Amino acid sequence: MTLIAVERIKLLSIRSPWWCIAAGVLVSVALAGLIAGFSDPEMLSIGLTQTTNQFGLILVMAMAALSITTEYRFGTIRATFQAVPDRGSVLLAKGVVIAFLAGITGLVTAFGSWGLAVLLSPEAQLAITTAGQWRTVAGTGLVYAIAGVFALAVATLVRQPAAATTAVIMWPLAVEALVPLIPRVGPAVEPWLPFYAANHFLFGGQDDLAVSMNAAGVLTRSDMPFGPWGGLGWFAAISAVLLVLAVIVTKRRDA
């Protein structure tokens, strides 16, 4: 049995990941349905149906954080490291499992939100016809996958369940919202914030109904230093660096 298979069984054999995934999908899709049901069809866009996926993203990140912190809390990580002395391999296997599960969750959430909006507002122009629109919907899976690795790395560094969960939730919701308010420094730093860059990948370059999209708070600045795919690359690079740092720290300290 491969290490990836072992980590998959460990993760999916407990209830909390399933609850996080189910809650994330249901809340995101339900909110998208509310938006579609109560919005003017002329003001409804594909991008707007995807703005609620942020709620699912937060819960998936919480799931990723708990996948490692609960092992530290109950001491089961020691048995894992005894069976597999190469701690880096363990974390990488966890990262693969988390990324795959989070990515699938992101795709289900994105297409579920879009599909429900199509059903509830058939008059709206919601056909996916451009590369940018496909990026907004299908790209959600990539963002979820990378965010899962981001959360796993942060949680590995922090170890404590409450602290790790708080960190991965508050960073995109509060920290990245407050940083731009810092005089002079904030606007310069804003484009390089990881989740701001991820939003640029999903919603950057979308010209359809920018007013309604901007009201939802997901549109990024027009003077970004990179394009949408560059935003995804930057987000992935930050997550990769954090994971490497987590591997190094884990190898050097006691379990």
Automatic annotation (TrEMBL):
Transmembrane segment boundaries: 18-39, 51-70, 91-114, 134-155, 162-182, 229-249
Keywords, in A-Z order: Membrane, Transmembrane, Transmembrane helix
Taxonomy, superkingdom: Bacteria
Name of the protein in its database record: ABC-2 family transporter protein
